[in-house]
Specification:
The protein is of the alpha+beta class. Helix content is 39%, strand content 47%.
């Protein structure tokens, strides 16, 4: 009987520890995403280049491209992500991959024109030996009541 209780307690502890780790990882990804938005607002292309995986893909209303083009666009001012007002955020962890969804209002300057758009932004992060890397950033423009 004592062994059964001990086994149950150990199993329960492992499940609780695992859940706590998962929640800590989710919070880490949320903070990383917030930091990324700030780097984008600051046009800090060097920090973004470190965060973006070499094989990362970026999907915008005007097309899709890779890391080098995204960094060059930010560095050159083609798109200036001035401010991302985050309304909702969720994170799912699958093995070494984190998928973050942000519902935001983005204030940006595109080709010299200021624009404001509601987006659902999907960010995919991959855990590598040297930390989390952004593998994909996709913007989906929201339409309709409440932009949902």
């Amino acid at each position: 009987m004592k062994k059964t209780i001990l086994v149950f307690f150990l199993l329960y502890s492992v499940v609780q520890f695992s859940f706590a780790q998962d929640e800590a990882t989710k919070q880490e990804i949320i903070e990383l995403s917030k930091t990324k938005w700030q780097w984008m607002a600051d046009k800090d292309a060097d920090k973004l280049a470190e965060l973006f995986d070499d094989k990362a893909v970026f999907v915008h209303m005007g097309g899709a491209w890779g890391k080098e083009r995204e960094i060059n666009i930010i560095r050159g001012g083609g798109i200036w992500y001035k401010q991302a007002d985050i309304h909702e955020v969720s994170v799912e962890i699958i093995d070494n991959t984190a998928i973050l969804l942000n519902r935001i209002t983005l204030i940006a300057e595109v080709g010299g024109n200021q624009v404001t758009n509601p987006f659902e932004v999907t960010e995919v992060y991959i855990k590598k030996a040297d930390g989390w890397k952004l593998g994909s950033l996709s913007f989906t423009k929201l339409m309709g009541p409440g932009d949902r």
